[in-house]
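Researcher: Please translate sequence to structure tokens.
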Amino acid sequence: MFTTQNRFSRILLTGSQGQVGRALYPLLGQLGPVLPVTRNELDLTQPHAIRTLVKTFKPTLIINAAAFTAVDRAETESNIAMQVNKEAVSILAEEARPLGALMVHYSTDYVFDGKKSDPYRETDPTGPLNEYGKSKLGGEIALREILPAHLIFRTSWVYAAEGANFLNTMLRLGQVRPELRIVDDQRGAPTSAKAIARITLQVLQSPLIASGETPSAHPHSHSEPNTMAYGTYHLTAQGDVSWFGFAKAIFLAVKNPSGSPRLTPIPTKDYPLPAIRPANSRLNTDKIQSTFGCVLPTWQAQLEEVLQDKNLRPSS
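Model: Translation complete:
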């Protein structure tokens, strides 16, 4: 019988210094030996470098936590965004297939146009509004077409104790500005990198995934549980909030002796950016919860944990 230890004998983690990569790296040792690679060590715009690394290391599990995430910059650097978020994913998948490797890839709520009134399900039609979303959708499509043994986790509004993210931007600006004007007509689920990492580990440890069988082993069977478990899942915090509501929660939770800035809610049109954002970024997470028994914490609980990691004492 396969276990996660012998199934995942060699794990390749790309983007190991990104928000999700940093959270993943300490956990992945529970599955097997890990080769973490940073942006400096693997340039995802260089196909030959990607192929050489995979051919040399021969991973049994590839976790692609690397991405071009500069949403506004992608509007003018769409070629680079497409190289990293689509072409590199395609190459990783091509190299993973002959190795019989499983590939985990992270995607985004930005593959949707945000016009639906309810939270998006995995089966809903996509329609990205910006170049970043288009590049991430391209990566999803390529992975599905090339490598049956894959897991795509769509997440949203990712943040961590370290790195460039909304939380740290708010805390920085709150120290120097008396007023912050925050968009209040976009809703989503702020999701911590640590929560994403923990759920990723739980899924990979599940018997549905850790058995070691691949869909090609039973091409005519529809009853193999792990073949049914491959695919796309929404992985976000529970609940939803606007950016303004998230900012308000941040400053309420942090005890700042010098006081908090005044927060003013504004519509998206009053804060124009190069890339259009979806108004509704809510993702339905029923599938991942029912398939793997995952318990997804609320965005409020995740915020409290991240603030504790930053040694900022939350209010009781």
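Researcher: Any highlights?
Model: Residues 22 and 246 are 23 Å apart (CA to CA).
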